[in-house]
Amino acid sequence: MERRYILLVAPLAFALANWLPNELFAEALQEAKVTQVVQDVKVVPQGAAARPVGVNETVGQGNAVQTGTQSRSELTFRDQTITRLGEKTIYTIGGGRTIELGSGQFLLYVPKKKGGATVKMGPVTAAITGTTVVGNVSPSGVVEFTVLEGTARVRLDRFCQCMLVVAGQKVTYDPITMRLENPVEVDLQQQQSSPLISGFQQLPSTPYMNVEVERQRRAAAGTGGAELDSAARAAGANSAGSASPDQFMHAFNSLVVRYPRDQVCDLVATAVRLRPDLAPQIVVAAVTGYQPYQPVRGYGKDYKEVVGKKEMPCDVVQCIVDAAVAAYPRLTDEIYNAVLTAAPMLRDCIGEPCFPRNEFVPPFIITPLTPQFPTPAPPVSPEHPPTTSG
Known about the structure:
Shape: elongated
Number of strands: 20
Number of domains: 2
CATH topology of the largest domain: Jelly Rolls
Distance between the termini: 83 Å
CATH architecture of the largest domain: Sandwich
Mean pLDDT: 78
CATH class of the largest domain: Mainly Beta
Low-confidence stretches: 1-27, 291-310, 361-367, 369-373
Oligomer: single chain
Strand content: 15-25%
């Protein structure tokens, strides 16, 4: 009897251990403290009239915060997620880890390893994890969403459209065409002058944003381009662009194993821009360039290196994949598949890709209920009687 009792309690304890953190995360975005108020800022409680709100007041789930002309506000959640609101903005605290922007401008910072968050902007939904983003919903229904650091997966659920948006990219939803446009590059340095950044205290993610600003600068300069050309010539080619696949990959492999880790993503982006036809091979070479250990019992989310017995953290792997996808989004699916084929244990690092090539999901065609009965042939015109062979 005693043994049976232990066996019943153990699964219960295990279930509670797995359930509690998710519940704690789910509650984290249900209540926020107002940490800054500039001019006209009001709270709109459920079923009540709007009233002015002050610093240190708490806003709960289902309530909205509304800003007036030339006004702004900042809300801080219990897990240190920060939301900043621009002028003429209506922002509602949803359930779980979901927040809703009715209209206006916002900045959202979600700390890393805090469970992520979902932002609903009309028909558009963005899933973010450890990311800083800005967005705008205009009265006309146009939605703009920009990633300042980290990544986001933006979906148009009504049409099952989805895309990956990385740091330095903006995606726009057009209510006339009713689809998400392809991501475009934005100047991250210029974004720093936004009132949602410069008009408040420094964000905890400022160092990450600075890294992305520098990375964008290096990408514009074509970091690694000259070195790839030189390595390609050493492999017998005239240039990186004209090299055969074997020559180019030989040149890339000779560089990636000795490239500074904080610039590997830039090298990957440059290589993919030069040779998009080799994008999957380039990413696999970058991720596996250090000859990782074979997976062992308890193998976690980090990719092991033989050299120095160090680790390649998940964020580096994700950075490599994101850099390649941003350089050539059409091959998103091929890039993900190549990495997961070469290193299946990295699935937890890079997550699931969005539907590739920014296309609508093909419609599902229902097959006939009685496929055993062939479809009758169309009627034959008397002028064109059927012909027989033989």
